[in-house]
Amino acid sequence: MIEYDRNHIWHPYTSMTSPPCAYPVASAQGVRLRLSDGRELIDGMSSWWCAIHGYNHPVLNAAVEKQLNAVAHVMFGGLTHEPAVELAKKLIGMTSDPLQHVFFSDSGSVSIEVAIKMALQYWFNTGKTGKSRLLTIRGGYHGDTFGAMAVTDPVSGMHTMFKGVLPQHLFAARPESRFGEPVSEKDVNGIRSLLERHHREIAAIILEPIVQGAGGMWFYSAEYLAAVREMCREFDVLLILDEVATGFGRTGKLFGYEHAEISPDILCIGKAMTGGYLTMAATLTTEEVSAGISANDGALMHGPTFMANPLAAAVAVASIDLLLEGPWQQRVAAMEEQMRGELRAITNHPMVRDVRVLGAIGVVETHQPVPANELQNQFVEHGVWIRPFGNLIYLMPPYVIESTDLSQLTAAIGPALDLI
Q1: 11 and 98: one domain?
Q2: Which of 229, 239, 60, 36 is nearest to 135 (CA)?
Q3: Per-residue pLDDT tens for 138-181?
Q4: How remote is the C-alpha of 156 from its chain's centroid?
Q5: Staple partner for 239: which of 232, 258, 259, 350, CB 3.0–4.6 Å?
Q6: What CATH number is given to the structural domain containing 93?
């Protein structure tokens, strides 16, 4: 199996001429992945941040099985079904009040594409056809599709390879003001200056609220996000927030924007929405934006084949109920406190540039890029699943993790640093 995998199957961000080792998973339960050779690994990644309830959860299993016996899939063009309606109700009920309309899609990247289309169509339909560019900040990551790539960091992203193909958008400097600190005048002026010069052509600002994910795992000031919200109103620009990674409790709030006490015009969510069971995402927007898009019988020009898939919608409803009915806030707060305490021990390691923790996210930033494959093997030997990238070793475990298992994850990072 492994030989066939290596010879024929692409894994994320890999070359087929020198593919890295892929570990075969035979089963998963709770926070543990069981490999085919019998070894168990404590999952520190929540399978790229989505398996917040752990694996093989009986409540989520039951939701899938029940829906499977009714209808596994039906086209959403001209038809609807109870799981989609129930999920829309829950999403509208748990997000900020102005967000009243939901578009379902297949993945986080596609939810970003939909958000960009919403912003462009809104201005086109309301007569401001010149507003066709986006503004964002450096260090961001919004996905791998072309629209999402175009607003991902132009240096650490994929702009060089696709230069001349991607739309050319505007990038402000990444805010230096850290989470928990006041925002600096420099940070605010950096994005304000671009708005002053280009607001007539800017359709929207797009940001990951509070936490920049795969672009660098940087946590920035909530005051910065609040300032951006005000500037969007001042310069007549929409605000798109990408909560694909931060949504559903990861930062200690249900959604990252709550730290700044603001509301976006368009919101993208995904990953943890289904608890990691099936791929699904959603883009929510306000009455004003949806009315602008729909004026003169305007139609939002998107429609994925598997849009609002009943199996995915049903398990998403169950996952949200499981989250809201459980002590997720206490669990995330306890994880934050434990990671702060345990990761403090490596802050003075010569390879460590910074250690930062927020909610159920722990990040160790190194002075130089880490040998990812070598560290991956080291972590597996220590019985944990941690997948570093660039100059980052980070943890995003399931919320249900026990303190002893979390300690095993944090304890594995120190020996890994000694290999760099």
Answers
A1: no
A2: 239
A3: 999 999 999 999 999 988 777 778 878 999 999 999 999 999 99
A4: 17
A5: 232
A6: 3.40.640.10
3-state helix, strand, coil in the chain (%, to 5): 40, 20, 40
Q: List the one residue out of 118, 167, 131, 132 whose CA is nearest residue 147.
A: 167
Backbone φ and ψ for 413, nearest 5 degrees, come out as: -75, -40
How many domains would you assign to the chain? 2
Q: Determine which one of 90, 131, 253, 271 is catalytic.
A: 271
pLDDT at 354: 98
Flag the least confident range among 68-77, 130-139, 147-156, 215-224: 147-156
Read off the pLDDT band of 233 (50, 70, 90): very high
* Marked catalytic residue, from 55, 90, 122, 141: 141
Active site residue 242: yes
CB 307 within 8 A of CB 76: yes
**What is residue 19's predicted lDDT score, i.e. its pLDDT?**
85
The verdict on whether 89 is a catalytic residue reads: no
Out of 43, 242, 265, 405, which one is annotated catalytic? Answer: 242
**CA nearest to 150, candidates 186, 115, 176:** 115
Find the mean pLDDT for residues 19-36.
95
**Co-location of 45 and 76 in the same domain:** no
Instruction: Judge if 213 and 78 occupy the same domain.
Output: yes
- Rounded distance, CA 143 to CA 40, Å? 31
Choosing from 307, 325, 343, the residue where a domain stops is: 325
Which of 225, 174, 169, 163 has its CA nearest to residue 201? 169
Q: Verify whether residue 163 is a known catalytic residue.
A: no
β-pairing, 238-242 vs 202-207, is parallel
Give the pLDDT confidence score for residue 159 in this predicted structure: 74
17/263 Cα distance (integer angstroms): 46
Question: In the predicted model, what is the mean pLDDT of residues 250-278?
Answer: 98
Q: Identify the domain containing residue 352 by its residue range.
A: 2-56+327-417
Per-residue pLDDT at 49: 97
- pTM for this prediction: 0.97
236 is catalytic: no
Residue 364, number of CB atoms within 10 A of its CB = 29
Residue 270 has pLDDT above 90, yes or no: yes
- Cα–Cα distances (Å) from 280 to 29, 81, 82, 184, 306, in that order, read 22, 16, 16, 37, 9
Question: Residue 179 corresponds to which tokens in the numbers above?
Answer: 């989470």
Q: What one-character DSSP code corresponds to residue 389?
A: B
